[in-house]
Amino acid sequence: MPDITMLPSYPPALDGQQGDEAIPSHPLGVKPSGNALLATWSLRDAIGTFRLLPDELILLLLEHLDGSSLLGIGRTCKAFYAFTRAEELWKALFIQSPLDNFTWRGTWRSTYLNLPPSKVPTIDCSHLYSDVLYRPFNCAHIALDPYVTKIPPRNQIPRLPDLSVEDFHEEWADRPFILTEPVKAWPVYKDWTIGSLLSQHGQEKFRAEAVDWPLTTYRDYMADNSDESPLYLFDRAFVPKMGLAVGPPQSTPNAAYWPPACFAEDFFSVLGKDRPDHQWLIVGPERSGSKFHKDPNATSAWNAVLRGPKYWIMFPSGDKRAPPPGVYVSDDQSEVTSPLSIAEWLLNFHAEARRTPGCMEGICGEGEILHVPSGWWHLVVNLEPSIAITQNFIPRAHLCAALDFLSNKADQVSGFRKNVENPYQRFVDGMQEAYPDLLAQTQEELQKKADGKKRKWDDIVHSKTEEDQSGAGGFSFGFGDDSDVEVP
Ligand SMILES: O=C(O)CCC(=O)C(=O)O
Ligand SMILES: [Fe+2]
């Protein structure tokens, strides 16, 4: 059999820029499915009746087994050994029954089974051809450079030293931008590194997706994992946990950080203790990040990078705009389906996204802060191990959008504690107390928008009335020529 380590059909050509040599060999030697075309035999021949099932289905069946059953079936033949080494199986088992005391051992399987490297055999599975097994490994190793460099000038997110509140409200509240100066004055920018956080909070537990791990364990994970979508530390309680003071340095003794002046006005603060989660510490290794989403409750956000640059790709949204390439939303926008990992999205959709009108891209470096306007789609990738702080807020320019969201998309409102039964009313009450004039003005604006929509609807229905009056009978789409379609 010819020794083809990588058929050029997989991974897909990457803007024509990535060399295959960037990807190391699979640790078990598994190769992409395309290689089977030229192979004279395959390890899969040994799995008996299971041969009839596609690889995806085999993996789905294995998801129903516990650890010892997986080990058992993995001993029956090399093909099943390779299948039962799939990391997603062991990650799911680990998360279902998280251990209190464990050592991260480089893979989810070794960690779950508490296996030191010497107990993990290297078994040659080079005659197994499977995209299902090869794809996650490939995605965990793609070079990011081709996607984050050569940003077309029209797509570049503007970079400014700083911005006044007035300029923000008048010109920038609807546009992404990066400020290069304010964060550089923050004590946390000067002091925080992974090492300094470990020395002060190493044993403190932080939330990383579905698990709460001591920071030392998360550091071990960051330093040694091959996950396609690395576990991302996203902790909403970091301020009290780390005993931080947050606020303007003039009025906050020992302030650790403060929102830059242009983001300081934040109407969600009228909710006081009832405010939904709005500030997060974000830590992750290279390649970790956030898949395409819009921020909750029509809020805007700022994201300040303390360590490790982040690549951002963003799109505006709106009734007449399609979601970004590769992202699918339900009609009421309540469900976003972006089944692809960040790497898969980059491989398959980045080139198209870059050509799509409205696309904005940029790299937010250490000591810089990025503005995410209300309603904008964004996908983010860390280009190096990263520490960031993010905060959601409602500026004056998006008060109307937030009020509209809370009132008309009540089923999509998120983040409020259970005791807040009517978030819209709670927000209106808070605004009424603190900013009654602004609330009245915003409600008037909302009413005008609603009337405008109703008028449009009436206009459509009205054309029916005219047809009726003209004696034409039935409803006409009103193309104004013989092609008019009659609907009884
Ligand atoms: O840093 C990231 O991964 C992005 C977080 C995010 O989505 C945000 O700040 O809105
Ligand atoms: Fe976000």
From TrEMBL:
Domain JmjC: 248-410
Pfam families membership: Cupin_8, F-box-like
Region (Disordered) residue spans: 443-488
GO CC terms: nucleus
Residues of the F-box domain: 47-93
PROSITE patterns in the record: FBOX, JMJC
Domain of life of the native organism: Eukaryota
Comp. bias (Basic and acidic residues): 445-467
GO MF annotation: an example: cis-regulatory region sequence-specific DNA binding
Entry-linked PANTHER family: ARGININE DEMETHYLASE AND LYSYL-HYDROXYLASE JMJD, JMJC DOMAIN-CONTAINING PROTEIN 8
UniProt-recorded name of the protein: tRNA wybutosine-synthesizing protein 4
